[in-house]
């Protein structure tokens, strides 16, 4: 096998292995090691070869880490097995184009100067992940920063720079390691090592400052975790998060309606609290079809003068539009939030793809967006920013309700993905949102993983998946704003711009000193 083929095979395996760095295993150093090796490959590659290596790395990552989309399409969506497998494969290949872009940009702009190239690698990778978060409505799942939730010391950067900022720091560390210990991989480094003695001296000369930089980045991240960016306000609030464990294939069957209603009524009765939360579309009816006496019976178990019930349900407006909504029921009336960021093909169908409706049998798949500027719900004495399922993948959208909101609540139904990596991965995403916002994040899910996540991004309590139950605990509302709440992704995009600026200016001035005796100096 040629060196190019060996590197391609290795890149695929490295991408697949990186999945172990995310939940549930959370071997958070592993993605950094894998990326360091990939960047080392890029250092000696043409732009075309680097793009190919980035693509196969991404293919390994996504085919291993998000192959659960097949479950939703075939098992629950009714798509034929082979067609669902092909659709899942093509979806992962599209996602792999973004690491390919990062490899191309790096190889095209690299200047063979270690510090410049390390910043360039971090900028190129972060830019590609940021683009993946919004192109074609966005799919930022398995962004590198998500692997660095606590106990990773890099989690401390989340309140400043968000998940992409954490990913930038992680890639910078990987690039420093990969470029520092890649002596001999390029003609430049071999030219510098004109003798074995000179080569050893030069490698030591590079490794000491690189190791110091890596140690500093890790130490700063750990130190940032000790900063209290936000403060608790008011009295603690008792909460009860209900997990009905209603099987997805049975949920919308009319004959199972009564069982679903009884399940949640029983769980609420047995686990009263000031705020009782039911998951996404927990009650398989339209909001205006929900019996008032049932709603009153359910809300009766929300204890205290300010007790409230929050539940997911489909709603319809006067123009016949449908919404995936959350309804907050209090003594003062009902407040609603309607999902803004909808899932393509699951909750709406892009205009050019109406033909897919004949292949996918997904109920309630024609929702309308609720709009971006919806205020927090005033319930249970708190300002509650509700997000529904997939919405909590988009940190820049969650912070729209901040700093006004004092509490984050996610309502999810990940039964669509069966017993797969989607469950723990989604909980890890919620940890990052809590860190960015400096708020408690409550997750009420149908099948898992129902959890309470602290403002420091740690899972305080969690229910086992695929079981019926209620998670009862106490949380506090928080006030104040983290730096990320104030400036969103603007800060990390400035870092990306700075990392790209030097190489771009060098490109305009002409070829770098590649091939000269000083190539590789920093």
Please describe the topology of this protein.
Blueprint: H1 3-18, H2 29-43, H3 47-65, H4 69-76, H5 81-109, H6 114-132, H7 158-180, H8 187-192, H9 196-224, E1 231-243, H10 248-251, H11 257-270, E2 275-277, H12 292-299, E3 308-316, E4 322-330, E5 333-338, E6 377-379, E7 382-388, H13 395-398, E8 407-412, H14 422-437, E9 441-445, E10 451-453, E11 459-462, E12 469-479, H15 483-487, H16 490-509
Parallel strand pairs: 1-2, 2-3, 7-8, 8-9
Antiparallel strand pairs: 1-12, 3-4, 4-5, 6-7, 9-10, 10-11
Explain what this protein looks like in three dimensions:
This protein is α/β, with parallel strands linked by helices. It has 2 domains: 3-228 and 486-509, no CATH class; 231-474, Carbon-nitrogen hydrolase (Nitrilase/N-carbamoyl-D-aminoacid amidohydrolase), CATH 3.60.110.10. The chain is 45% helix and 15% strand. It is built from 16 helices and 12 strands. Strands 5-4-3-2-1-12 form a 6-stranded mixed β-sheet. Strands 6-7-8-9-10-11 form a 6-stranded mixed β-sheet, covered by helices on one side. Strand 8, helix 14 (422-437) and strand 9 form a beta-alpha-beta unit. Helix 2 runs antiparallel to helix 3 (47-65), helix 4 (69-76) packs antiparallel against helix 5 (81-109) and helix 6 crosses helix 16. The two termini are 34 Å apart. The relative contact order is 0.13.
